[in-house]
Amino acid sequence: xxxxxxxxxxxxxxxxxxQEIALLKYNGGGDWYANPTALVNLISFCNNNIHTTISPxxxxxxxxxxxxxxxxxxxxxxxxxxxxxxxxxxxxxxxLLSGGFLHIDDNYGMAPYLKKEIPKIxxxxxxxxxxxxxxxxxxxxxxxxxxxxxxxxxxxxxxALGIFNDxxxxxxxxxESDLGDGWEDPEVHNDPxxxxxxxxxMGANIIQYAFEN
Length: 213
What we know:
Shape: globular
Largest sheet: 7 strands, mixed
Oligomer: single chain
């Protein structure tokens, strides 16, 4: 019954007059606020290209707050340390199992910390690489080779890793890609337009999947 009530709250937040998405503020000292123009630009791209009506300014929510249940999509990023308390982990788990979606985009340096923090949320589940046949790569925009490479860093291949519940992707971890950098204002990283377009299109696919599943 509790999960059903949480799902109703989530749906009210989604199906209101305006759609909203949120940025996750977490503990541990990592820069959760990195890429300040990224979500604003992604929202604008989605509203102009995939017919969403997302509020232009994303909201900031804390991992342990029940406010997260108002948003169908939550984005998380940064370069450094991440720490989830037991309360944070339980709250995030309830949110995801009740219909929410969490996208974690490694802005380079988060992976070692997430390896110990994600199991707090789902101790009985493991991150799995998402096949290129998955709908998230085949929404409005098709990425036949999977996650695009936006920034080189170590030169490793980009990976989209996920946690599933009842065949629904509930947590997406994008690694060695740096999508958020590609969403930022052009002058921040001076990425070529075609690279920024790939990042924004992949981001739009993620938003679309989260809203529809």
